[in-house]
């Protein structure tokens, strides 16, 4: 590709060799991203026994393919510890269910109103809001993208944005109870006490969603099932969209050459007008930036399954009841799968670049439990980034240190202060391209 300075975005420090269990637990309480040592980004994975339970981490693409695709029927969707965290809110919704009931749920998900029209509608309000901001005013980007994603998902699922703010806030309150140090607390509690700990948030979210799904009945689904599907779609879709946009904006602010390439593409293709879904195939740089953002910072950094029976995976024996982890945070940065894996290189995803090795890129999962709306979710993020970046740019707040954290989801911090600037200067006429 045309030369640009190397840029390595922040990631947690990696220990070398074995460390005491007490230190490992301390790291886990801060962030699950910190528990992986340097060797996990180089080797095929590991297996260990904790409290009588076999834990297996898989890094080899053929092993990941077996767990997520070819032998998916041998692995239940969620281990008991994760079900304890998520079932109180989502019940047996789309992202908790195992086959065979999942097929009907996927059809419900795909029948929800489109994300792209909802994205275009929600962007109008954010554009108007940002237009009133003073040049250089600091905003919380993470909060702004959560707000935008909440409105998009409410419009798409419920046909109205009126409950976006309270539902987004309640979802964040629930997430705070089951993330970070709260994750360790929840896992340690008996299931009855764990449910009690989040009962207030669950009750308020259920009541709000019940008020929104009135008149939304689907054939063969009662109110409870529909509520579970709506909450599952909102939770997963909201997290994916907000995170992809937050990560992309942060990386663009730190890599001016990538920002220049984005501006050049938008100027050439859109010429100042609002993008439409028909423009998206002509925005490969926009897409590449978002794909690389999700490689470096996957919204869901850990995928867990439980072995429903004794099985063989890529030559390794997996006992019944073992918890198997496929960790996008590891796989996306593995030295055998990627060149300079910790560097920000959007050109990896441009047309003409070698495609990622199979099962080495998993931003939306894979196999039968692949997110049913993964394509439209990426298109929604492209539409949002292309719309906003034409009129605005964001720069990092001096002195603010970004440190990614992970539990069930990944974030760049509870808040991400950034300076909002109106774009005035014309876009440069150069963009990065893959080497011939």
Précis, in short:
The protein has 436 residues and is an alpha+beta fold. The chain has 15 helices and twelve strands.
Explain this structure to me?
The chain has 436 residues and is of the alpha+beta class. The protein has one domain (21-422): Cytochrome p450 (Orthogonal Bundle), CATH 1.10.630. It has helices spanning 21-30, 61-70, 80-90, 102-111, 115-131, 141-158, 164-178, 181-188, 191-197, 199-212, 223-254, 256-270, 284-296, 328-331, 374-391, and strands spanning 45-50, 53-58, 75-76, 138-140, 303-307, 311-313, 316-318, 323-326, 392-396, 405-406, 410-411, 417-422. It has a five-stranded mixed β-sheet. Strands 4-12-9 form a three-stranded antiparallel β-sheet. Strands 6-7 form a two-stranded antiparallel sheet. Strand 6 and strand 7 (316-318) form a beta hairpin. The protein is globular, with a radius of gyration of 21 Å.
SSE blueprint and pairings:
Layout: H1 21-30, E1 45-50, E2 53-58, H2 61-70, E3 75-76, H3 80-90, H4 102-111, H5 115-131, E4 138-140, H6 141-158, H7 164-178, H8 181-188, H9 191-197, H10 199-212, H11 223-254, H12 256-270, H13 284-296, E5 303-307, E6 311-313, E7 316-318, E8 323-326, H14 328-331, H15 374-391, E9 392-396, E10 405-406, E11 410-411, E12 417-422
Parallel strand pairs: 2-8
Antiparallel strand pairs: 1-2, 3-5, 4-12, 5-8, 6-7, 9-12, 10-11
């Amino acid at each position: 590709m045309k030369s640009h300075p190397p840029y390595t975005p922040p990631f947690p420090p990696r220990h070398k060799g074995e460390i005491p269990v007490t230190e490992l637990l301390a790291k886990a309480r801060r962030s699950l991203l910190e528990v992986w040592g340097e060797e996990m980004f180089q080797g095929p994975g590991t297996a260990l026994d904790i409290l009588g339970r076999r834990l297996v981490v898989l890094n080899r693409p053929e092993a990941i393919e077996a767990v997520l695709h070819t032998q998916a029927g041998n692995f239940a969707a969620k281990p008991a510890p994760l079900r304890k965290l998520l079932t109180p809110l989502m019940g047996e919704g789309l992202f908790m269910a195992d086959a065979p009931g999942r097929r009907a749920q996927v059809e419900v998900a795909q029948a929800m109103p489109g994300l792209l029209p909802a994205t275009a509608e929600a962007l109008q309000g954010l554009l108007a809001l940002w237009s009133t901001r003073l040049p250089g005013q600091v905003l919380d980007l993470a909060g702004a993208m959560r707000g935008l994603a909440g409105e998009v998902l409410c419009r798409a699922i419920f046909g109205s944005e009126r409950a976006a703010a309270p539902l987004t806030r309640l979802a964040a309150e629930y997430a705070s109870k089951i993330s970070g140090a709260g994750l360790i607390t929840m896992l340690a509690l008996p299931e009855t006490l764990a449910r009690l700990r989040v009962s207030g948030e669950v009750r308020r979210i259920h009541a709000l969603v019940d008020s929104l799904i009135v008149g939304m009945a689907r054939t063969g689904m009662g109110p409870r099932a529909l509520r579970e599907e709506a909450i599952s779609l909102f939770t997963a879709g909201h997290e994916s969209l907000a995170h992809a946009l937050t990560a992309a904006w942060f990386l663009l602010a730190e890599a001016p050459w990538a920002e220049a390439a984005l501006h050049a593409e938008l100027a050439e293709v859109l010429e100042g007008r609002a993008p439409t879904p028909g423009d998206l195939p002509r925005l490969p740089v926009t897409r590449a930036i978002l794909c690389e953002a999700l490689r470096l910072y996957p919204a869901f950094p850990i995928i867990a399954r439980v072995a429903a029976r004794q099985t063989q995976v890529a030559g390794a024996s997996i006992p019944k009841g073992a918890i198997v982890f496929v960790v996008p945070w590891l796989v996306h940065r593995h030295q055998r799968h990627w060149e300079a894996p910790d560097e920000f290189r959007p050109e990896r995803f441009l047309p003409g670049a070698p495609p990622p090795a199979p099962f080495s890129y998993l931003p939306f999962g894979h196999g039968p439990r692949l997110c049913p709306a993964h394509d439209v979710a990426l298109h929604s993020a492209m539409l949002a980034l292309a719309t906003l970046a034409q009129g605005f740019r964001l720069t990092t707040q001096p002195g603010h240190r970004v440190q990614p954290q992970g539990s069930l989801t990944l974030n760049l911090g509870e808040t991400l202060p950034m300076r909002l600037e109106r774009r005035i200067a014309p876009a440069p006429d150069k963009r990065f391209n893959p080497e011939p």
